[in-house]
Amino acid sequence: MGLFDCLWEQHQFLMHQCFSLPFGFLFYFLAKQGYLSLMGRYLFVCVGGCVLAVVTMGIYSMLLFTSTFAFVLLMCLVDPGRIHPWAFGIQMLWQTFWHLVIQYREYCLHEPVSIRLFWAVSSLMLLTQRITSVSMDLQEKQVIFTFNASSKRKAHVMLLPVISYMFNFTTLLGGPLCSYRRFMSLMEGIKLNPPPCPLGVVFLKLIQVSLLEFLKYGFVVFMKHNIYDSSCSNILCGFLWIWSLALILRFQYYSHWRISECLNNAAGFGFWENSSGDASDWNGLSDGVLWTTEMSIRMSEFARRWNATTASWLRRLVYIRCGRFPLFMTFGFSLFWHGLHIGHFVGFLTWAATVKADYYVHRYLHPKLSSTWRKLLYTCLCWINTQMNITCVVIAIELRNISSLRLLTMTYTGLFPICNIILLVILLKVNTVY
């Protein structure tokens, strides 16, 4: 196998995103120079997304086409104030059906699942975000569509931006989530007030992606030469080994988010021009930065910073709308959205419990920190606790099956979230008494 074949086999997602970069630059150049009208811009990103879907997913691209067609049909037939429950229900049923198909093939038939199907379902999850975002905008009257049966051309003109938003080639495979109103303002403003040339910032972010991949490769090589032995009595080695494994899995997410930022920036999206006089940057569309996220000393901070646009979407979709137990309902829906594997149940419910414990512990202990060294010690311990809790969550969610739970038990890492949950129960009882 040649070098290119090896790179393609191990990094297919990154390679597809890299191959889309020239089309992003082409869109930016044509739009900035005025060669594309507003409708032409919508058609460019829409057709580009459709072609990308067919090339990467093959026949499974029909999953996305079916969802979009159903949503457009709902927009034409259902009152805007009632469209959200219908759109949400139909989309989640469709997505969950394909999640169950994958589980049936994996666990019942014991046959390999096509990578194209995995990509299609992953893109379907992102499409769920965009569909429900538009349906919530319609329900809350932040976006208004008026269809006149006597004017079919007007209806087509109004539907084209929505379809383009669903199939935008810059966000089809990897996000980040951009609101429909912001998508429209970006498409309209790229000619009127175009951002500066993104070539330099894209090149810089590509270097960052390469560094992340090299760093991940270094961790993989280290772990291959230092395989953890369950008979070893050194608990610290077990903690470090499982932490390194979880860090490798997180590096993969950071690489994917960064390459998705590159593609959006190449098309001229994501430039943030600060009106307060601060320096402008290209991070207006971002799902997370490694340093900022990993330096979080609290579970609640990590939850907000990790996959930031998805966290905001979950907050709007579930947390704000849920009257009782909003935190657990939000994480519960997240495991439903991710696919209902056994590891998802353990991972997301553990995440919810440790975030809840974080609220109570911080509120109870932080006022008692009088001296500087106590605050420093508390910060260090909180960071270690956050890292080990997130390690348990990531291992459970990414490995998905019973083997992940065995791994957490074997290395004693699972004691961290258990201790957090026990502390939560104690503090809840203390607050009840007083």
Map the helices and strands.
Elements lengths: L2 H8 L1 H21 L5 H20 L4 H16 L5 H26 L6 H25 L12 H16 L12 H13 L6 H26 L10 H32 L23 H5 L4 H7 L2 H12 L6 H13 L3 H24 L6 H28 L2 H9 L4 H19 L1
Helix pairs in contact: 2-3, 2-10, 3-7, 4-5, 4-6, 5-6, 6-7, 9-10, 10-16, 13-14, 14-15, 15-16, 15-18, 16-17
- The helix count comes to 18
Q: The biggest beta sheet, please?
A: none
Could you give the count of β-strands?
0
Mean pLDDT equals 86
Percent in helix: over 70%
Point out poorly predicted stretches. 1-9
InterPro entries: LPLAT_7/PORCN-like, MBOAT_fam
Subcellular location: Endoplasmic reticulum membrane
GO molecular function: serine O-acyltransferase activity
Membrane topology: Multi-pass membrane protein
